[in-house]
Amino acid sequence: MEAAIVVLPGSRSALEPGRVIKRGRHGLAPETVAEIQRERLIDAFVQVVAEQGYQQATISRITQAAGVTKKAFYDHFEDRETCFLAAYEQGTAIIVARVEEARKAADSWPAGVLASMRTLLELLAAEPRFARVSVVEINSAAPRVRAVRTRYLEGFRSLLTEPEDGLAGVPGTVADAVIGGVYSAIYIKADSGRTEELPELVESLTYFVLLPLLGKEDAARELERLRAP
Length: 229
What we know:
The relative contact order is 0.11. The two termini are 21 Å apart. By secondary structure, the chain is mostly helical. It has eleven helices and no strands.
């Protein structure tokens, strides 16, 4: 059975054939039209921000990339920050769900860490626009947008503070430091335009996560065991 294709915000052009609604009679319900416009605006937002930066991503540029009017933008979003929140939450929720799915399918806690890391980095590498917006450009967004990022990052704390397999967890501050370190490594790649290199970090970042719970020797031994197949 083939895996479902993951579509993150910004992965498709808002103007690609099949997404543009023709003027006049088209037979679509108003709710359908509104949903299509909203998704096109989200894709356009991510594309414009990734290419020009959040500070340069004016509503005019976003609506032009989406192929809709400014009125349509304000029908869906109060301002750019609201659009940023929608794009970030939509994409991040997809990534978190896939990461959690990979973790639960693993047969041990260390294997779950490796599977989660591989899934996360491969998804971001495949979607460089969303990766840049969600990791780099979000730092230019308003506090309420960054607060959502913090909430999602904190969601990974239990992986370290309450691990499975009878392992003793680490304090919350240590978990935050590990999560911050992983985020920083991803940030460096995304900020330098080398998002495609993220999968190369799978083993090193997995070791970094295993280290505080297993210790240097056991973390290296476990990583070698997981690498064997």
